[in-house]
């Protein structure tokens, strides 16, 4: 069975800010959540060229992230999943503002695969009807889900937030991430999509909550933080 979801996530920042914010937030969360032999390591990080992303050959950054997640698999899912499911890989081709990902279980890609295509659009409020140019069949299958990052945060350095009801309608700066999620799994498609949605919302909430940590950093400074943190991630997920 194939499940097709389209997430729409608006954030109060520019396109350039979003690029460094995603990098900073990922490595910051990864270091915090990697411990006791579990977490994530970045096994591949290199330039790519002429890879098709959103229907056009593009250049950018390819990364492979390897997640060791055995204890985080919910008890209700364990009977349906193979032992190999304690390891999940994420391959990403990032040609910002376009990207694509494949999330899969090594050796079981035909049975457990989540494909994600994303486009970040500046000055956009999540109203595009068919940003991915889907055909009629896929448009019928597609389910749209608007993810609200919440209103609890107030940035002291940028004076952005709190984000009250209907903030999207007139806020500047603003950017919208359109994310097409294609779940191709042998079992538990809906549960896997719900968990992916939960993790995506958590990530982008943290992108905004951490704004005062990254807003004054340059892109090169964020790249340096990511590079320095890779060794720490390796140490944190080594078996005890």
Description:
This protein has five helices and eight strands; from the N terminus they run E-H-E-E-E-E-E-H-E-E-H-H-H. It is an alpha+beta fold. The protein has a domain at 2-44 and 109-229: Alpha-D-Glucose-1,6-Bisphosphate, Chain A, domain 4 (2-Layer Sandwich), CATH 3.30.530.20. The protein has an eight-stranded mixed beta sheet. A hairpin with a 7-residue loop joins strand 5 and strand 6 (112-122). The longest helix has 21 residues, at 189-209. The chain is globular, with a radius of gyration of 18 Å. The model has no long low-confidence stretch (mean pLDDT 89).
So what's the oligomer here?
Answer: single chain
CATH architecture of the domain at 2-44 and 109-229: 2-Layer Sandwich
Taking Cα atoms only, what radius of gyration do you get, to the nearest Å? 18 Å
CATH superfamily of the domain at 2-44 and 109-229: START domain
Q: Tell me the CATH topology of the domain at 2-44 and 109-229.
A: Alpha-D-Glucose-1,6-Bisphosphate, Chain A, domain 4
Describe the sheet with the most strands.
8 strands, mixed
């Amino acid at each position: 069975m194939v499940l097709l979801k389209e997430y729409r996530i608006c954030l109060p920042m520019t396109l350039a800010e979003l690029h460094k914010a995603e990098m900073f937030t990922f490595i910051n969360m990864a270091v915090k959540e990697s411990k006791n032999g579990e977490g994530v390591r970045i096994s591949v990080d290199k330039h790519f060229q002429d890879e098709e992303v959103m229907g056009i050959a593009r250049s950018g950054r390819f990364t492979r992230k390897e997640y060791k997640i055995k204890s985080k698999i919910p008890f209700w899912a364990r009977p349906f999943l193979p032992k190999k499911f304690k390891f999940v890989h994420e391959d990403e081709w990032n040609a910002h503002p376009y990207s694509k990902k494949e999330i899969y279980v090594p050796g079981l890609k035909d049975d457990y695969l989540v494909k994600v295509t994303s486009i970040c659009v500046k000055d956009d409020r999540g109203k595009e009807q068919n940003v991915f140019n889907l055909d009629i069949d896929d448009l019928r299958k597609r389910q749209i889900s608007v993810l609200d990052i919440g209103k609890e945060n107030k940035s002291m350095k940028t004076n952005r937030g709190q984000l009250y009801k209907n903030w999207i309608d007139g806020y500047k700066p603003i950017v919208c991430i359109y994310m097409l999620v294609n779940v191709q799994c042998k079992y538990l498609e809906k549960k896997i999509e719900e968990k992916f949605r939960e993790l995506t919302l958590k990530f982008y909430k943290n992108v905004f909550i951490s704004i005062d940590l990254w807003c004054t950093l340059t892109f090169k400074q964020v790249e340096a933080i990511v590079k320095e943190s890779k060794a720490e991630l390796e140490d944190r997920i080594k078996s005890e």
